[in-house]
Amino acid sequence: MKILHLKIKNRIAILEFDQPDSKVNVLNTDSMRELDEIIEQLADKSSSQIKALIITSKKDGIFIAGAEIKEIEQITSSDVALEKAQKGKQIFNKLRNLDLITLAAINGACLGGGLELALACQYRVASFSEKAKIGLPEVNLGLIPGWGGTQRLPRLIGITRALGMILAGKLISAKEAKKIGLVDRLFPETRLLEESLVFVNGLLEGKIRIKRKQKKKPLQIFLENTPLGKVILFSQAKKNVLKKTKGFYPAPLRALEVIRRGLAGDIKRGFRLESEAFGELAITAVAKNLIKLFYLNEQFKKFHWVDQKINPAEINKCAVVGAGLMGGGIAQLVSFHDIPTRVKDINYQALKTALKTADKLFRYAVKKKKLKKHQAEYKFGLISPTITYHGFKNTDLVIEAVVENLEIKQKVFKELSKVAAPTTIFASNTSALAIIKMGEASGSPEKVAGLHFFNPVHRMPLVEIIKSEKTSDETLATLIAFARKIGKVVIVVRDVPGFLINRILISYLIEAAFLLEEGIKIEQVDEIARAFGLPMGPIELVDEIGIDVSYKVVKILEQAYGARMRTPAILETVKQEGFLGKRTKLGFYIYRGKIKIPNPKIYKLIKGAAGRLISGQVALKRMIYVMINEAARCLEEKVVTRPETIDLGMIMGTGFPPFRAGLLSYADTLGSANIVRELQEFEKDFGAERFKPCSYLLQMAKNNEKFFG
Fold first, then answer.
1. Taking Cα atoms as reference points, which of 423, 427, 628, 336 lies closest to residue 508?
2. Domain stop point among 475, 495, 515
3. Domain end residue (candidates: 236, 259, 283)
């Protein structure tokens, strides 16, 4: 079946992309071959009746979503990748060299190779639609643009703006694209093709002339147009990339180098440099892992956790009980998505704090241009505070976010059952407590599930939905639809203490605390974890969560799982001393503004530090291997049934390094037999039950199996 459809209207050729049996258009071997053939045809006819070419799409809200990622994923040779990059450039250069006026009419998402195609045209127009997102996001897949983007974009919009888009994989709106000169005109979505024809005719008749003189501030002129300025510009850009990526992601640095060196010579040299860099990056483990994660994320966006025949109820009104840090964050997120939200607490001060937090987040969204001021004010106005249950009768969903105490939570659920409508769904934001016990307290356990957000709520993409043995599929379907509506990635897990993510994470935090007790310095433990690629160290994370909160969750898991989740003495001692973490400016670290230093008093509280020499490599293995072991137990107990759920959950919920593709994907690179052998050595050396390999892992090692077959 054909992908490209060419028709002639007067003197103008109109080329429409329409990928069969797909919601999106992508550039793959077939579509690029068709494009090449059509360009050859037009080149033959260019001296006759055809005077212009408009390239557009028949897909709703999609121009071209980029290159076919599956084809990139299958590349195993840098030479093959380089050849593909060169071939794409050859086709786009033919387009650029046509003796015609060429125009890309961008009706929606224009990403990666799609934008590189548009850049090869002489002109670009776009629709006003919010669906028209434009960018080169290749670095998010461990790659760089391979079909000329690193060379054409900075020459069109300036180095500074191009670096901002390419190095961060940033997408911009059509309005922003027009402002910076990336597109030449904006038209209504419904009249995009008609207006494009008028625009092209205006160009042909000489009635329209496009002047792309960029408006630059004096500093930008200095940075982009002088040798010294360019040195400063690229040097600062490199510092910013390293600060953000910590050196774990090579693509942004290679993109920066290709842009810098390419702009120093002619564009042909830049094209070659780009192809060579693309070829080298395409076969790296980082690129393969990020591509795997991309597919995993896309899969979970539409994964069917329940029968598709079950229709979720619409959540038009929501309530949150508990206006603490999490409750306030949840209320802000829900109202951000235009759902009226009632927030209840037992005192006005908590409500005041929650509203202040929400207001701060909305102001930040305005500052970052995610919202306009009037939009933020409207959304903030959807939050209504109360110290009673007045208004709860009309809510479709109530999210409980009170303190992590089962008796208090059960009391809240009993109260809710008396004030809410019979159809209202109840969800708990508990970190570790049994959902079934809260459900039974409500009298309607089929309407109760866990809805576990991660802190900070507005930033962490994951929501863990916990299904008790009595939660109905209707309740589950409704909560899944709601979580996705408010922009979250969803995983569904079984109702066990700690559920999935916290159960695995707590084993890691416990191990870090034991390393402290054995004599490793606070900052050393954290540096070991950060050097592995984690966004923060485990001791920093305990401070961030709150030492009292962490202690409470650890005690819950110790009660449930026994010796392998034994609470480290240092955690209890530090809590008793009143060191509660970052929110009180004093925990394992002392916080002074943006500066933090290890708290020297911690070492005085550690009793009987072993003083043995533990290498950073051994410390890292201990922290990571206990997580792998606990994750294997979760599969064994069917907390979840797929290793993919664990990998995505750990990346989205804890910040496990994306470039490693997930905890269990990383485990597969080590080998189950090696992990079991070293856990057994740790068990022997340290006499701790927490290192004992679970039967699931032992069986894998025996059969030399991987988590991902």
1. 628
2. 495
3. 283
CA distances for 99 relative to 50, 96, 210, 492, angstroms = 10, 9, 18, 57
Q: Please tell me the predicted confidence (pLDDT) of residue 211.
A: 84
| First CA to last CA distance, the chain | 34
Global pTM reads: 0.93
Out of 464, 518, 540, 630, the active site residue is: 464
Kindly state whether residues 337 and 419 are assigned to the same domain: yes
When divided into structural domains, the chain yields a total of 3
pLDDT computed for residue 522 by the predictor: 96
Q: In angstroms, rounded to a whole number, what is the distance separating the alpha carbons of residues 680 and 572?
A: 28
Question: Which residue numbers in the chain have pLDDT < 70?
Answer: 45-48, 608-612
| The amino acid at 673 | A
- Residue 235's contacts (CB-CB under 8 Å, 6 or more residues apart) are none
- Angle, CA 592 vertex, CA 591 and CA 598 arms, to 5°: 45
Same structural domain for residues 584 and 642? yes
Per DSSP (E only), the strands in 195-324 are 318-321
For residues 470 and 600, membership in a common domain is answered with no
Q: What is the pLDDT of residue 612?
A: 67
Is 530 a member of any domain?
Answer: yes
Residue 374: domain span = 318-495
- Is 318 in contact with 342 (CB distance < 8 Å)? yes
Whether residue 468 is found in the same domain as residue 428: yes
H or E segment at 336?
Answer: helix 325-336
pLDDT score at 46: 55
pLDDT of residue 44: 83
The answer to whether 138 and 169 have CB atoms below 8 angstroms apart is yes
Question: Which residues sit opposite 133 in a β-bridge?
Answer: 173
Reply yes or no on whether 314 is catalytic.
no
Q: Which residues pair with 13 in a beta bridge?
A: 8, 53
**What would the two tokens of residue 455 be?**
């802190």
Paired tokens of 683? 């068990």
CATH of the domain at 471: 3.40.50.720
Residues 6+ apart with CB under 8 A from 641: 635
| Same domain, residue pair 194 and 139 | yes
